[in-house]
Each structure stands twice: as C-alpha cells, then as structure tokens.
Amino acid sequence: MADSVRIDKFLWAIRVYKTRSEATEACNGNKVKIDGVPAKPSRPVKIGQKVEVRKGAVLFTYKVKALLENRVGAKLVDSYAENLTPEEELRKLHAPTETFFVRRDRGAGRPTKKDRREMQEVWDTVDFEHIPEGFQDFGDDSEDDEEDYG
Question: Domain 5-92 is classified in which CATH homologous superfamily?
C-alpha cells in the first residue's frame, strides 16, 4: 500500500463525509486542515498526522492510524483514525440552537453582515459546559407535548 492517500478520499473512507464530492467541497472551502495547514483535496495524508474537520459549529479532530482508499464499515473506522475531538466540541452538537433564534420582522430579508457577526458573537459566548436547567433536553419532543397540548 502507498505511504500516503488523498485527504478527500481518506475522509470519505473513514465516514466523515457521505460522499467523496462532499469531502472535496469541504477541502476547497478551507474546512479541512492537516497539522494546522489548510488542505486541498489532492493533499496527501500520512500515518501520524492530525486532521481537523469543521462541520457546522463543531471542529472534529482525528489522528491517522492507518491509510485506506476504500470506504469501510463504521465498526472498522477506529482501526484507521483515532477521534481526538474534545468533549467541549462534541457538546456543541447538542446545544439548544432554538434559543438563538432572532425574531425578524416579516419582509426584513436576510441578516446583514453586521447582524451575522453580532449573532456569531453571542454564539461564541455560550458556555456549553453549564447549560441551564430546562434546556438540557430541549430537542426532546416526547410525551411532554401530548400533555401540554392535549
């Protein structure tokens, strides 16, 4: 086997992205870094390198353990890449995003660049380690709704 593999192919093979096209687009959009350096899709990745992938608000970090070119089953992924993503990043996956909904008047259009920057500032100040009571199960729409709405 070769001593390196294209980064887009590797990310697809370890199931970070569903398609190789998505992996390529992420690389072209500067969402993938190898050892802290932005990576183009054709950039080779080697064993021992650290790969950072930005997906939404979360920055996933992986260490390359072995190389592969073909997609493997989810159970085998741990043999090829070690997930080093910090717990605080993973908590962002469960953040109550609905609490950041900004009410906009009908017909006001899209937020301006200034509005988006202000929203990003608010998002960055959220303490994901200390989520207030009542917001921890925010996305759970189980039987509580039936009781409230009959």
Answer: RNA-binding S4 domain (3.10.290.10)
Helix (H) or strand (E) holding 55: strand 50-55
Backbone angles phi, psi at 76, to 5 degrees: -90, -10
Model pTM score: 0.64
Q: Can you give the residue ranges of every domain in the chain?
A: 5-92, 97-149
Phi, psi values for residue 45, rounded to 5°: -115, 140
Q: Which two tokens stand for residue 99?
A: 């609490």
- β-sheet with 37-38: strand ranges across: 37-38, 32-34, 50-55, 58-64, 81-83
What's the token pair of residue 117?
A: 């920057």
User: pLDDT tens-digit profile of 108-148?
Assistant: 788 889 988 888 887 777 776 666 666 555 444 445 444 54
